[in-house]
Design a protein that fits this description.
disordered N terminus; mainly alpha; elongated
Length: about 140
């Protein structure tokens, strides 16, 4: 007897190229051609370690850019923590932002600009929505 339910059909597993395409669509500006940014590694692209590194970087970017202005104080705190990590130039730890960017051949400054732009856009949208709500009241 298994402690975990066994499905009849195994969930589809995304390959590294599919994950890269998803990440590129989610974090890249529409004006950037995805072919300009290489995220695939020539060695062991499907290694668990590389998947973890990709997930850490992706989670921080998504958290900071989507939840910085959240109504939830917990989400705002997590977003600010993620932004501090992204803004840090610390290279002493291999799971710091800069080494992870280098691992995926990404320019840390470029990612930072994308995140800051997303935060500014989110803030502008929230301000416009609040003004619309106030004007309607």
């Amino acid at each position: 007897m298994s402690l975990f339910p066994v499905s009849k059909k195994a969930p589809a597993r995304l390959n590294p190229e599919e994950i890269d395409r998803i990440v590129e669509r989610m974090i890249m500006a529409s004006s950037v051609d995805p072919s300009q940014v290489t995220m695939n590694q020539p060695t062991s692209p499907d290694s668990p370690e590389l998947g973890l590194h990709r997930a850490i970087l992706f989670d921080a970017v998504v958290c900071a850019s989507r939840h910085y202005g959240s109504r939830s104080s917990a989400q705002r705190a997590e977003a600010r923590s993620a932004l501090r990590w992204i803004e840090s130039d610390d290279e002493s730890y291999f799971l710091s932002f800069v080494p992870l960017c280098h691992r995926f051949q990404l320019n840390p400054s470029w990612i930072r600009r994308l995140v800051r732009r997303a935060i500014r856009e989110q803030s502008a949208e929230a301000t416009a929505a609040a003004a619309t709500t106030a004007a309607a009241a």
